[in-house]
Design a protein that fits this description.
- The protein is α+β, with helices and mostly antiparallel strands and about 325 residues long.
- Among the domains are: about 70 residues; about 100 residues.
- The chain is built from ten helices and six strands, in the order ααβααββααββαααβα.
- Helix 4 packs across helix 6, helix 4 crosses helix 7 and helix 7 packs antiparallel against helix 9.
Length: about 325
């Protein structure tokens, strides 16, 4: 059964009371929901990870592509969510402080309540990262603007604390590693100096040196009586021993520098995030969008009216 525009108009006019009732009912429901639904406020905080390019990244572009996404995923982690959920916030109604888990009012034992609270919190939070600007934005939807802003700022705080903890834990591991390497490098340097000392004790030196770098090493050991040999074999052996000392000194200095840097990073609590815009309590609700809801209800009413009219027309056609 084909339906032309004229026939469709006739069908609607024939069942106009039912079509109007469907549109009216849908519109009333939409209007009621738009004005009865509790207001929701959205608070957002944005930040940029500190632009320190570590050796793992070959370029700034790679850092900007990886780090913001990592921070966004870390903010969604169960550990960060749990910390935010169990933090105490000011209750707008009573004035006292409650954990967000208590504000949600989840039921059941502690593990079940925590699981349900985490699921509900994920629905209130939106996290976006921009790989062009490296900006990460955390937005939270909630019924009270003060709580929404406090939640967004708490996410940034917990994320920074987790980053600092990761950095300090890594620095602690590096400190332990370089501490052992420092001992090994120091022992190697001592052994190299002892080898040169034994060499001088077993061989009569010529009292003149040819290289300033060698003079510095020998002067530290023998003062002004810097030895030098005429024998090619002894001179070559002396050069080899002094090169060994120079290499050992360079290794020791580098390892010592890395060890001290690891000590500094372990003790450092420098923020890992640069906050661009902290969250503030929004003055205007973000939901419900009343005009959009009413317009959607009207459209749904029109669609519903056509479905009802077609159904009635089909039933009449089958009966006849």
């Amino acid at each position: 059964m084909s339906i032309t525009g004229l026939r469709l108009a006739i069908m609607v006019l024939k069942h106009r009371h039912i079509a109007f009732a469907a549109v009216f009912l849908s519109s009333v429901v939409a209007i009621a929901y738009a004005f009865i639904a509790p207001p929701v406020y959205t608070a957002a905080a944005s930040f940029v990870p500190n632009a320190i390019v570590r050796t793992e990244f070959t370029s700034i572009a790679e850092w900007m592509r990886v780090i913001p996404q990592f921070q966004a995923e870390l903010a969604r982690s169960r550990d960060i969510m749990r910390r935010v959920l169990l933090t105490r916030y000011a209750n707008p109604h009573t004035g006292d402080s409650l954990t967000f888990l208590d504000i949600l009012g989840t039921k059941g034992d502690s593990l079940r309540a925590l699981h349900d609270g985490l699921k509900r919190l994920e629905g209130f939070v939106s996290i976006r990262s921009n790989i062009q600007t490296a900006i990460v934005e955390i937005s939270v939807d909630w019924r009270h603007p003060e709580v929404a802003a406090a939640l967004a700022n708490q996410f940034v705080y917990e994320l920074n604390e987790r980053n600092v903890g990761i950095r300090q834990e890594r620095a602690r591991e590096e400190r332990d590693f370089f501490k052992e390497r420092e001992k090994e490098a120091w022992n190697r340097l001592i052994c190299a100096e002892d080898d040169l000392r034994v060499f001088y004790e077993n061989n009569r030196p010529h009292p003149q040196s040819r290289l300033s770098s060698q003079k510095n090493i020998l002067s530290s050991l023998f003062g002004e009586n810097t030895p030098r040999y005429q024998s090619p074999r002894l001179a070559t052996e002396e050069d080899r021993l002094m090169r060994n000392i120079e290499i050992s000194e360079k290794i020791y200095r580098e390892v010592k520098r890395a060890y001290e840097q690891a000590l500094f990073m372990e003790a450092s609590n420098i923020p890992t995030l640069l906050v661009i815009d902290p969250a503030v309590p929004p003055a205007v609700r973000s939901k419900p969008r009343r005009i959009l809801i009413i317009a959607s209800g009207l459209v749904m009413g029109v669609i519903l009216s056509f479905v009802v009219v077609f159904s009635l027309q089909y039933i009449e056609h089958v009966r006849t």
